[in-house]
Amino acid sequence: MSFALIASPWALVVLCAGAVTTAAAVGGFTAWLPVPVLLSAAVAVAIMVTVGRLVFEPPRWARVAALAGGGQLVLGVFPAVGLAVGAGGGATTVATAVLALSLVVVVTGVIVAARAMRTLLTPVSPELGTTPFTVTLRARLHDTGLVSGSVSVTSQRVEWAARRHRAVGAGSVHFRDLRDARPTTVAGTAAVGWLSLSDGTAAHALPGPGVLLDIGSTTVLLPVDDPELFVALLSSRVTAWRSASPG
Asked: Model's pTM, two decimal places?
């Protein structure tokens, strides 16, 4: 995680600086030459500021690494490489090397982040409930080729979400409002409506095992494949939260 969210972004800043410095040495310095380096550095700083929050969010590591790397490529690396190519001469060779190395850094960062997440959270076990890491499980939805869904246990709440292209839907319940969680079974053979999406459609859960959350005046179904594991993990996390909560 440290490589993907700290080392990788600053490596891209260094590569941008190398391309810009070469362009200035060959073609002469101008006031706007440092701009790609500054923009790339701004992204790296923004990631550093959020690392404290991201460290306990393993499911977000690869996505953030990809977004940060892509942002630095567009805002910093590509313009810096363009400046070096425009300067001509030996700067063209440097530009090619910077572009290739930058792409390697971004891809490696995403791969490392994804592997770190899998290493930490695979296999999912109830013992993860005693840690502060967010644990995310796949929701069992109808037509998974178009719809994706997830159920997450954070340090203070249960969250569930679904997406179909740009249409999204989500819900959550804080531990203080959670009265009970128990395994259940979605009976029948037809998919049932689970979560409303922003485009007016709904994500449908497939029949099978699940977890029923009692949140007072209503209940929420979570279509997860291993409800006993989920309930054990959630119970452990809620117990840890209540022990740490004042009063």
From this structure: 0.81
